[in-house]
Every structure is written in C-alpha cells, then in structure tokens.
Amino acid sequence: MTRDSDWQRHEAEARIQEVLEAAKTRGTQRVIDTDGRFDVTFVSGKKTLEELFSRPGPLPDDDDNNL
After folding, report:
1. How many angstroms separate the first and last alpha carbons of the chain?
2. pLDDT digits (tens, 9 = 90+) for 6-63
3. Are strands 29-33 and 6-8 parallel, antiparallel or unpaired?
4. How many other CB atoms are there within 10 angstroms of residue 24's CB atom?
5. CB 25 within 8 A of CB 41
6. Helical ranges in 1-67 per DSSP H
7. Cα–Cα distance between 26 and 65 in angstroms, integer?
C-alpha cells in the first residue's frame, strides 16, 4: 500500500523541492529505496510560546539561541 507521503527514490531525487516542501507543510515524507526507506522530516528552528512556557523553570542553555 502506498501513501500520499511515499515517494520512490528516483522520483524524489527528480522532485526534491516538492519532497522538502511536503515535509514542511504536510509532515514526514517517506522515500522508498530498494533496501529500506528514508524518512524526510522538517524540524522547525522556532518554538511557539506554548512550547517555550510548557516546562517550569528557566530555559535550558541550549534554548537561549532560539528566542
């Protein structure tokens, strides 16, 4: 069964901009290879206020640069 987020490797290589945009807007994209798969996932560099204030206490040092 193939999902909308599945790409054959040769197709993904030819349409890499579409794969990356789909990962950003629709979630993880799977690129199927002959012996496995790649999961292409977008991770935002920005945090929402909800994410920033979801944990008690001061921000960890690694979060200081993401403000």
Report:
1. 42
2. 999 999 999 999 999 999 999 999 999 999 999 999 998 888 888 778 878 776 666 5
3. parallel
4. 14
5. no
6. 9-14, 16-26, 49-52
7. 27
